[in-house]
Design a protein that fits this description.
Length: about 240
């Protein structure tokens, strides 16, 4: 109920702002809704949302898989952490736009370069978060696994994975917010479709209604994923801590 009230308040403030500023600076909600409906009827909205979502999921999945494996390795192997840490700092502090530009210059304006740019921009965040999780592993639980002669697979499943789950969930939740923003920039600079491409097209035409018609549904979609997928996953990931307490 509170969220519905909050949403209604947002729309009301938007309407007031549109009346005060005029359609040149902020179109009214109904005008944006009409443009959104027209794009939906033509099929362009669903197509471009689907293309962007596919890029988000592909880049996000690659970054989480590679970043988690590397992060755990760095947290467990001190020598490897010392070797890789300077590179990690460099990548963390390199602007996303620079990474995207280099990916397109080196690889060309294609889907592989776009996916590489998305993955590389998310990768260091996943690595850092999972590295901290690996460092925080309880050595007493490792000793217990040795005493009970757990196999490597069983040790990972029952000892390591439950401890890393909250860190993985945190990296996933924060990473999704970063990835979809990166995807929009990637599409804006070098792809012929997707939400970012359509937003760039709207910008060049100074069409605020079209800009908002593509921005709002995608933001709403990401909020739904955050609320109904990532938040519940993050809560369930730490069930053993609550039961242990």
């Amino acid at each position: 109920m509170t969220r519905i009230v909050s949403l209604c308040l947002f729309v009301a403030l938007w309407q007031v702002g549109a009346l005060l500023l005029g359609p040149r600076y902020l179109p009214e909600p109904m005008a944006v809704a009409a443009t959104l409906l027209a794009e939906a009827r033509s099929g362009a909205l669903a197509f471009n949302l689907g293309v962007t979502l596919a890029r988000v999921l592909a880049g996000f999945s690659l970054a989480m898989v590679i970043g988690s494996a590397l992060g755990v390795a760095l947290g467990r192997l001190t020598w490897l952490d010392r070797l890789v840490d300077p590179w990690l700092v460099i990548v963390l502090n390199t602007p996303a736009l620079v990474v995207i530009m280099f990916a397109y210059i080196w690889g060309g304006l294609n889907e592989v370069s776009a996916l590489a740019a998305i993955t590389l921009n998310k990768l260091p965040n996943a690595v850092v978060t999972l590295r901290e999780g690996a460092r925080a592993l309880d050595p007493a639980l490792d000793e217990m696994a040795k005493v009970f002669v757990f196999s490597r697979l069983r040790r990972w499943r029952h000892v390591v994975a439950p401890q890393l789950a909250p860190y993985f969930a945190a990296a996933a939740r924060g990473g999704l917010a970063l990835v979809w923003k990166i995807v929009l920039v990637v599409e804006l600079l070098g792809r012929p479709n997707g939400v970012g491409f359509k937003m760039n097209e709207a910008f060049q035409l100074f069409d605020l209604r079209l800009l908002l018609a593509y921005a709002l549904p995608f933001v709403a979609l990401m909020i739904l994923v955050e609320s109904f997928v990532l938040r519940p996953a993050e809560r369930s990931a730490s069930w053993w801590r609550r039961h242990g307490a």
